[in-house]
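Hello again, I could really use a second opinion on something today. Take your time with it, there's no hurry, and the full record follows here:

___
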Amino acid sequence: MAKKKAEEVKAELREKTMAEALSSKDFYSPKKLLDKNGDINVIWGQRSNGKTYSYLKYALENFRDTHRTFVYVRRWAEDIVVKNMDKLMSPLPVESIFGKGKSIRFYRGAFWLQDEDPSIDKVCIGWAIALNQVAHTKSQTFQDAQVVILDEFIQLATERKLKDEFDAWEQTLSTVLRTANDAKIFLLGNSVGKYSEYFTPYGIDPNGIKQGEIKEIILPNATGDPTKVVAEYCEYNAKIGSKTSKYVRGSKMAQTGEWEIQDVANIPHTDNEWSREMMLCSMYDPIMNLTLGLFVRYAKWVTLEVDNGIYYEKAHEREFIVIRETNKRSSYYHLSTVKDLSYSTWTDLKKMFKDIEENTGIDIDKELMMGRVFCENSFVGDYFYHTYNQYMRTSLRDLL
């Protein structure tokens, strides 16, 4: 019994130490972002800087002040287990927020505020749900929910993908919030890769936001009430980076918060470049649960030049084809205004490429041979190369 008591005391001390560290000025502070009063807030940066802690603390304080509940969301159901959820809450200063003797425990899919006095009723203050189980949450009621936190919204490159993830996210929001018009939504992630299904729908260009910068984006709605998106790329925390660097040698994200995998690593890109894309076609592989799109990317940028001591701006532009993963999925050729053609994914590459050339003058095969087709990353490049060879029934070497 004494041994058990000693272990409990040690655990409390560890939690207290962690909570004090996370609440110190050395870690991330949400104040600048919260002052923007955004509807949807998207935050990313280096790991372990206190993002999740800060917004969970905000959710608890919001419940204390308003009795409005929160919903914590992850991608996969296996992330929502009692062990993980109790560990998630353990560093938070529950007693300083709710009073001495208070604690939070997770069971039956919900977070419960309880007192050490068993005669005091437990109170449900929030829930945890998974995006891959959205079909099972549609009929549930999340009473008085106001704060929604999606954690780890940027996937690791090696993580399996969730089919139609953004649709699942929006269905989750409509289920959780119902008719609420004062919700506070937070998407939290580590800078493990610039590709995310959430950036484009929320009007975020990850290349256009520097470390330490916060940007506001106004998205118009058909109802006339616009949505305010606030995006923050967390500033570099040297104290965290110095500690992490001792053990993590090859990860820029962990050390400095820089992007781990550049989505333009193999795509020409210039600072201050303005670009737009037009989709040529998209192909879906149901086995890989992967949709690749072929896009024409038009890029333009300006440099400051000098001629005989006089400075002037010089415009540059280029156009090339990009192959990347996309949320857009279709069975027809997008640019055609003459015909509406259906394809059966990859098996109709020849017909698809012929139709593209007929309507736009772009010869995909020629662009490939001339090296003017760029891929988002090595995985996309390898996948497209092998699929192209399989369904075009020819080898690139034969064309050289």
